[in-house]
């Protein structure tokens, strides 16, 4: 026969199980806005049935049910969607950094504008044009010196901004790397906690949520692959292991040089760290190199000019392999002569100053050197800054009877050639020829196209990530409407279980306290 109190035990199990479901539902509602939280559910199963008690095998139909049990509390999570999120989020981390870098580059270049490099270059050419009209004017020379200094300052300042941006990106890459190491260490620690808790049969749901939220963040920093093994997550980046169970030692010694080497080897090919290093080495350094090339070319790049008839070249001038000297009797140009000179420095040295001296190199560094000029060190020759009369504007001298020479101060041939260099093509790399302004416009155009394309890629990738995350949240996220429905359902189940216990209690009370009392 069955136990007298069997019904009480069945009702008690139902109450306890339903109470667990109510508490879990409350936990879900409490964490509806918690980032990374996955909704939890109680898994019910019928309790193990028993054979009805008796001296021999029961003749009752079937076994006797013992109610319900909560076998586990598990997270609702889709590993495929997690993997898809990691795969897409790394691209967003990469594109976001590169977009931000290109936007900063656009701010530095600041074109088109009335204050950018293009404007000061144009002012430089205009000043030569104005001076060619009044080559003896001291005011015109002073203006030209100031406009040239302004152009040099613009080169210097733009170079400084670019190099400062490089330093910022290096610092940001280090911050991201430190974050990667910190996250890896925390994940390894959580692996140990989860293994310890689940080793005694419990589900470490909240700890798993914390770990997955960290993996989400890690996937934005680098391209990672996650394997869920018996000792926890193993996380790799290409052939490099970042986390292996409870250990993250392999990731703790990583340096920026290691990450740069990983990019070269292909182990690191995405994420914010990759995007930061690429932004620094590809975009920023690329524009530094182009600006340096532009500064050196304007000073020393090959340029083809036509020397007008009647010009007198300085003694010992060598052009296209020909030496022009008094001894050779060829200093005075009898026909227009087309020659190649080394930039504005070489051109300026073909003219004469107000003092009758050969022109100095127009551009130097702080030590007076003219080789390997960069946007950071180029400047107007300090001698010319100190004495604007050293600006060469004339290409004509008269020969005196005593063998001396006198410059024709009113001649403007050099100033005209200088002003005409505005539209002359310079040799930038031996094969590419362009005017200075044209070369700079190509830089600005290239930057604009790169920035627009990266913004498009970031926008598209952001949409993809949001779609994947939305699908993931539809599975793992907490729906308050659904939780309220469950709350009502479990509340009714709890009340019904309590009612069952009350009925059985009343029945037992009748049996215990009322039976056998007839006639008393």
Can you walk through the features of this model?
The protein has helices spanning 6-30, 79-109, 117-133, 138-198, 205-221, 249-252, 256-265, 271-300, 343-348, 382-386, 413-420, 436-476, 480-514, and strands spanning 40-46, 68-75, 225-229, 232-237, 240-244, 302-307, 317-319, 322-324, 337-342, 363-364, 379-380, 397-399, 405-407, 426-427, 433-434. The chain has 520 residues and is α+β, with helices and mostly antiparallel strands. A hairpin with a 5-residue loop joins strand 14 (426-427) and strand 15. It has 13 helices and 15 strands. The strands form seven sheets. The protein has a three-stranded antiparallel β-sheet with strand order 3-4-5. The model has no long low-confidence stretch (mean pLDDT 91). Helix 3 runs antiparallel to helix 11.
């Amino acid at each position: 026969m069955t136990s007298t109190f069997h019904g009480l035990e069945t009702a008690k199990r139902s109450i306890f199980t339903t109470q667990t479901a109510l508490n879990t539902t409350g936990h879900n509602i409490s964490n509806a806005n918690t980032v990374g939280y996955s909704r939890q559910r109680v898994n019910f199963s019928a309790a193990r049935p028993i054979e009805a008690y008796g001296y021999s095998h029961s003749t009752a139909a079937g076994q006797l049910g013992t109610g319900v049990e909560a076998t586990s509390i598990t997270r609702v999570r889709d590993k495929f969607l997690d993997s898809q999120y990691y795969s897409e989020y790394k691209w967003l981390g990469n594109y976001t950094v590169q977009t931000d870098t290109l936007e900063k580059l656009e701010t530095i270049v600041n074109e088109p504008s009335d204050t950018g490099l293009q404007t000061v270059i144009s002012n430089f050419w205009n000043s030569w044009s104005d001076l060619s009209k009044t080559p003896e004017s001291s005011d015109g020379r002073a203006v030209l010196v100031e406009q040239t200094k302004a152009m040099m300052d613009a080169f210097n300042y733009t170079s400084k901004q670019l190099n400062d941006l490089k330093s910022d990106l290096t610092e940001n890459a280090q911050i991201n790397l430190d974050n990667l190491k910190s996250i890896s260490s925390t994940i390894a620690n959580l692996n140990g906690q989860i293994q310890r808790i689940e080793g005694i049969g419990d589900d470490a749901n909240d700890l798993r949520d914390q770990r997955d939220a960290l993996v989400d963040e890690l996937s934005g920093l680098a391209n990672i692959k996650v394997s869920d093994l018996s000792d926890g997550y193993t996380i790799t980046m290409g052939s490099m292991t970042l986390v292996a169970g409870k250990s993250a030692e392999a990731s703790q010694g990583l340096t920026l040089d290691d990450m740069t080497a990983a990019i070269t080897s292909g182990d690191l090919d995405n994420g914010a760290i990759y995007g930061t290093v690429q932004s620094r080495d590809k975009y920023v350094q690329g524009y530094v190199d182009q600006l340096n090339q532009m500064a050196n070319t304007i000073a020393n790049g090959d340029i083809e000019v036509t020397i007008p008839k009647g010009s007198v070249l300085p003694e010992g001038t060598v052009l296209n392999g020909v030496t022009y000297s008094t001894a050779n009797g060829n200093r005075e140009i009898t026909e227009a002569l087309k020659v190649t000179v080394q930039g504005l420095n070489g051109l300026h040295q073909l003219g004469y100053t107000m003092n009758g001296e050969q022109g100095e190199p127009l551009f130097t560094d702080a030590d007076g050197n003219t080789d390997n000029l960069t946007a950071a060190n180029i400047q107007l020759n300090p001698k010319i800054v100190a004495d604007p009369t050293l600006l060469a504007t004339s290409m004509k001298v008269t020969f005196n009877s005593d063998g001396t020479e006198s410059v024709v101060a009113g001649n403007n041939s050099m100033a005209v050639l200088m002003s005409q260099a505005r539209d002359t093509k310079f040799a930038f790399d031996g094969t590419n020829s362009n005017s200075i302004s044209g070369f700079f416009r190509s830089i600005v155009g290239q930057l604009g196209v790169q920035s627009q394309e990266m913004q498009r890629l970031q926008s598209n990738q952001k949409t993809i990530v949001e779609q994947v995350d939305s699908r993931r949240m539809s599975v793992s996220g907490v729906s308050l409407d659904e939780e309220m429905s469950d709350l009502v359902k479990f509340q009714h189940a709890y009340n019904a279980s309590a009612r069952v216990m009350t009925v059985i209690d009343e029945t037992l009370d009748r049996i215990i306290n009322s039976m056998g009392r007839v006639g008393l």
